[in-house]
Amino acid sequence: MLPALTRARRAAGNASPALKFVLMVGIMSFFADDCRLDMPRGPDPHGQRFEGKERVREALLGRLKGIPDVHYGEVEHHASGNCGMSKWLLTGTRSDGTPVRVRGCDFYTFANGLVTVKDSYWKIVG
Predict the structure, then answer these.
(1) What is the pLDDT of residues 56-108, one digit of tens each?
(2) How much is the pTM?
(3) For the domain that residue 12 is a member of, what is the CATH number?
(4) Distance, CA of 57 to chain centre
């Protein structure tokens, strides 16, 4: 499951805006209807939280819009039971022209072969 998500995420990062939307639909096929996404930043200790497949999809599309040339490299995966972790280096340029380079990781919870929780963390480089 984790390598498939990474392949989809890499493809989305290298695609045109129209294709990114199509790829996002594919990425969302890995998520349960009642999934949850905790973003690295936000007003609460868990970051900004999005619940439900549609809200999670919108949040992930927002990431692609905010960093249109996003690229995930140096990817590493680990999984055990219903938990998984991906570690990566995200690079790209924010829509305002600011370069971004961050080391991050996602912690996943799975149920019935689908992602129920994606909890993201970023370590800012620089």
Answers:
(1) 999 988 888 889 888 889 999 999 999 999 999 999 999 999 999 999 999 99
(2) 0.79
(3) 3.10.450.50
(4) 10
Q: Which of 72, 57, 58, 73 is nearest to 13 (CA)?
A: 72
**Percent of the chain whose predicted confidence (pLDDT) is above 70:** 78
Number of folded domains in the chain? 1
Domain with 14, as residue range(s), is 2-124
Nearest to 91, CA basis, from 2, 14, 7? 14
